[in-house]
Amino acid sequence: MKTTTSSDATADAPVTKTAKKGKLRENIEAIVIAILLAMFIRTFVVQAFKIPSGSMQDTLLIGDYILVNKFLYGVKAPFTDYVVIPVKEPQRGDVVVFRYPEDPSKDFIKRVVAVGGDTVEIRHKQVYVNGEREENPHAIYVDPRVIPQRVQPRDFFGPVTVPEGKLFTMGDNRDESNDSRFWGFVDVSAVRGKAFLIYWSWDSEDFGVRWSRLADRIE
To answer: Does the annotation count 177 as an active-site position?
Structure first.
């Protein structure tokens, strides 16, 4: 029979400590990798946003949580607007998230109505791009009044030509949207990405989930 000595017990102890250290290191590495991967996805691929206002009704409702494709318009250098790998530029009809021109710390979401080189005009609420009436089945009007241009540019605007590298954007809720009619063009470089999916929707008035909106594509 083998007798266990005190020296045998001491010799086994470092092995146990090393195993614990190895396990702890593995866990830390896994957490770090997960954080880096999440940061990479958020910076370059997809980012989540919440809709705080009704300017995009009925396409987007207050309380909708959306996903935005950040890769679609090109890969930018971190913390800058410099496009390292260009992919494509925003097109008419895209619903985009961008930094608000008058306060870049805020993100706005609107629909692209016109791009660089296009001429935009609004007459009696109706939008015309390059002389042709805009076809946007998502646009709604909630105010029957028609406001003269001398009062504000909501219902009468332009014509103006969009400069290259700029976008003219409007909310789908045309009567209740603070958009390019009031504060001008959006720099293409300020666009964060294209909205493509509603992944959650909370109705604070009825205190419930809008189940029918979950996984809806944004068009």
So the answer is: no
